[in-house]
User: Fold this.
Amino acid sequence: VIDRFIMKQDEAVIRTLNQAIMDLQLAYFRQTERTLADALSFGSHDFIRDPLFAGLFREICASKQIIEFYLCNNPEGMLMLDSNGVSYRLIVMSDEDLISQYEIAYDEGAPETLLQALKSGKVLPYFWQSGGTYGPICQDWRSYLYPVTEFQGKQWYYYTLIENPPSFKPESILSYNEFLDQMDQKGRGSAFDTKY
Assistant:
């Protein structure tokens, strides 16, 4: 099946090829979106079904040059990678999520200053060492809080974007650019190694 026909002689071949890849990826994800939305309708992740938030997500991906992203839980959001392998953790919460974070922290005996910070709505927690919510392991609780940005879609969302999140260890990940470099090396190597 041929999805696109791109002339190698085109002066903008790289830009045209990259745009075609993005267009085809978008078409693929739109095709599979219904199945995913049906599966998630039994859970949360409301933000992925909100077209306004989807627009914001596309802007974030474009600004950070994201080429891979994965749906995450605890807390809800996305794990994203750019072509150099730099990771980002997008955390998205609703009013209900913020209340739940506060109530769990209260029940776990969190310090009053943490409870006030959670109640303020100016920070989002990322308690990555304790399954997404406050726990006794989070003694240095300030290191788990990140500045919040509010966004109004079908409802109010609160999000933060964390570069190189502490829960993600990319040492064993081959970045897209490294992969391309390896393919270039193999291509050059095979041309020079050929015996005539």
